[in-house]
Amino acid sequence: HADLLDAVNFEAPADGCQVDAVRECLSFLSSATDYSTRGQHLLLRCLQLNRPSDRQAFFKEVRACRRRRQVAWEGTSVSAVLTEVDEFKLFEQRALLAATARRIHARGLSLRQAFHAFNSSRSGAMNSSELFSALRWLDVRVGVSQLHEAVRMLDSDADGLLSCDDFISGLSSSNGDAEEKLLGAVSPVQELIIPLQRIKELYSSDGEHANRPPPVSLTSEELQQFTVTLRPCTSYRLVGKGVRGQGSASCDVLCVWQPSERGVGRPAAATITIGHCATTSTTAPRDEASGCCVLELRDSRASSGFRGDASTRLQAALDQLCPTPNRFRAVFCVRGSEPLTVWSAVPPTPDFVALGSVATAAGPERPPPFDSMRCVPKSFVRTSATPMTNSSLVWDGLDGNVWRGSHGLMAAAKPRQRASSHELAARELRWMTA
């Protein structure tokens, strides 16, 4: 017989699963934040007897003792290990995502094409209602609570909205070649009509948009009924002041002004902030020469209703023609008792551009609200996007400089660099189909 009857100091070799589990546990003890799908499941199987709150406290305390950047773990793959009770919840969510990806590919769509087709508001950020409607259109039966869990799992910045990168990274399979083959399967101009079913939004759980319904999508013909006009701003609010450090050659004080004509005003018109204004004067700008311009979106069919609500039609056009930025990037920060940070906007998609910049009276760890400014379609601006030749230097500091760019809008750049800006092609514009 080949059976072992007795042995001294004998240790059976561990199988691959045990070795992988030990490796993931050691990575967790080392405060690692990047885990594969298999690693997440193995860790949750080992830690399922501990409450998620205890895991979070342990992870934070151990990482605080290490000499490394204390980045937020919420946007990393370790968040699933620190928030889920066990691995079965991950199984359920990933089964939903796998079923969704299979149905998308079965219809001959790439994930990027599917995102733009599902994003009926054309804002570059998919909300829960749009994803829920898309899953129903794909015949994927899902509950509202289950969909919200999937959105939270895919959402990298925890804002309740999914970017194109969030959607693709969450649904892409391990076979990247299959995804590439589908890129040319469907014409980019093909338009899918997906009925919108409204559900509770995650991004509207608090704040000023708490009661705002999901956006309504307008057709290209309906968008052509709106006019965008450039006009001088008549009212400003001081955002903050920045004092230049030693060693510069311009004025000491930088004052940034925000147009206070914001939001939807009259039932058929909306005033749009496209950037802030920078001066070296402590008094608010009084004319176009010292101030900046804003956009006014006007509905030429003001007398006609849209589902009985003209404001809904106007808000839909505002979100589609002039969406809010996807995020903001800090250009530089003026430190001191009253910090001032200048930000550049990142458009939601390559089809839009940001005309100006904004500022906040806080440090770079607190970005401005998304509705601080809005972007415009790339078709609205001149084709040449070169460094500004008609600009003037407003303020030159040690950490960066501020320019007065096109339409009086603030533009910022790093030290010893010249800011670049876009200029509208005309003072009155309409949406034109390609």
UniProtKB/TrEMBL annotation:
Keywords: Calcium
Gene3D superfamilies in alphabetical order: EF-hand
UniProt keyword annotation of Calcium present: yes
Gene Ontology MF terms in the entry: calcium ion binding
PROSITE patterns given in the database record: EF_HAND_1 (PS00018), EF_HAND_2 (PS50222)
Record domain EF-hand: where: 142-177
Protein's UniProt name: EF-hand domain-containing protein
